[in-house]
Design goal:
The protein contains 4 helices and 2 strands, in the order αβααβα. It is an all-alpha fold. The protein starts with 25 loop residues before the first helix and ends with a helix.
Length: 184
């Protein structure tokens, strides 16, 4: 990824600020990860929508718990009456509540959608769904900025133009001459 302000290539995509100019890169990372769409965050006072899965599990639990209240009441009515109808209602309520409640919770947990994503995208219409067997789309980083030449500096003067560097043989010869003088 390149910094959009100065063009410095970043070491990795986790860096939060440009290493050259200090530009905050959090927004750039979010733009690249969302395919160029700006994320929209919820305000703290906005209620979170309940997912169908959570709603179904709640319904099943409520049905199961209501069965613990309704079935004994219908059974008491059936014991005091001489009609068959209250007994049938008690049996039907027991089947619906104690079998239907857990089945509703199981169906919601397995087959219904989970919670929606916490971030919604701006856009005119709904986001297109990716194809199931298509390769994932590649999100490229921003292209590098055009190369700008630095202001021209005065060339550093070469001060060793007058004297050639000594060769290896000259240094060796000097050392040998020193040895000859010390031996005498």
């Amino acid at each position: 990824m390149f910094c959009p302000q100065c063009g410095q290539q970043q070491v990795n995509g986790i860096i939060r600020f440009c290493s050259r100019c200090g530009f905050p890169l959090d927004g750039v990372i979010q733009l690249l990860s969302n395919g160029g769409n700006l994320p929209m965050y919820r305000t703290p006072d906005e209620p979170m929508p309940v997912s169908p899965r959570k709603k179904g599990v709640k319904q099943g639990g409520l049905l199961l718990l209501s069965g613990a209240l309704i079935v004994p009441i219908l059974a008491m009515f059936a014991s005091f009456s001489n009609f068959v109808l209250p007994e049938m209602l008690a049996a039907l309520a027991a089947i619906i509540c104690f079998i239907g409640g857990p089945l509703r919770m199981f169906y919601a947990a397995v087959f219904e959608e989970g919670a929606p994503r916490p971030v919604r995208m701006y856009g005119a219409g709904p986001m297109p769904m990716p194809q199931q067997f298509a390769p994932p789309a590649q999100h490229n980083a921003l292209p590098p900025p055009p190369v700008r030449s630095q202001p021209s500096w005065r060339a550093r003067p070469n001060t060793a133009e007058l004297v050639n560097p000594p060769s290896v043989t000259e240094n060796t010869t000097r050392l040998l001459e020193k040895e000859d003088r010390t031996e005498r």
